[in-house]
Amino acid sequence: MKTYSLEEMTNKHIGKVGTPKRDAFENELRLDVLGQTIKSIRKERNLTQEELGELIGVKRAQISKIENSLTDARFDTILKVFKALNAKINFNVEILNQKLVIR
Questions:
Q1: Cα separations (Å) of 102 from 32, 81, 98?
Q2: Does residue 32 belong to any structural domain of this protein?
Q3: Helices within the chain (DSSP H only)
Q4: Residue 101 above 60 pLDDT?
Q5: Residue 20 within a domain
């Protein structure tokens, strides 16, 4: 029986890197990871969604949507969330095959 790598399976079922379907999949995956990270840190800090929302000036429902990847939250809202959680963040931006790191 032949074994397949995750990359091979993703290419076969989602599409190759650079295709619209693959780009959409990877974007959704990044949003999911971001939401799960926020949820994990929030719980480590013993904060409820409501308490975190109060810290940044949004309702509990907005925090829930961010954590569950149900919304494309504004960039400044995400920054406020991480600041309220006292978490350091780094962003990598790739422009025309050149990598720019923002810290």
A1: 21, 18, 13
A2: yes
A3: 6-13, 20-44, 49-56, 60-67, 75-84
A4: no
A5: yes
* 1 within a domain of the structure (yes/no): no
Q: Considering only CA atoms, which of 71, 72, 76 is closest in space to residue 89?
A: 76
R_g (Cα) of the chain, nearest Å: 17
What are 33's two structure tokens? Answer: 């990871």
Tally the domains of the chain. 1
- 102 pLDDT tier (thresholds 50, 70, 90): low
Q: Tell me what the pLDDT averaged over the chain comes to.
A: 88
Domain that holds residue 38: 6-102
List, in order, residues 6 or more apart from 78 with CB less than 8 Å away: 34, 66
pLDDT value at residue 27: 83
Q: Is 72 helix (H, G, I), strand (E, B) or coil?
A: coil
Q: Could you give the CA distance from residue 13 to residue 16 in angstroms, rounded to a whole number? A: 9
CATH number at residue 68: 1.10.260.40
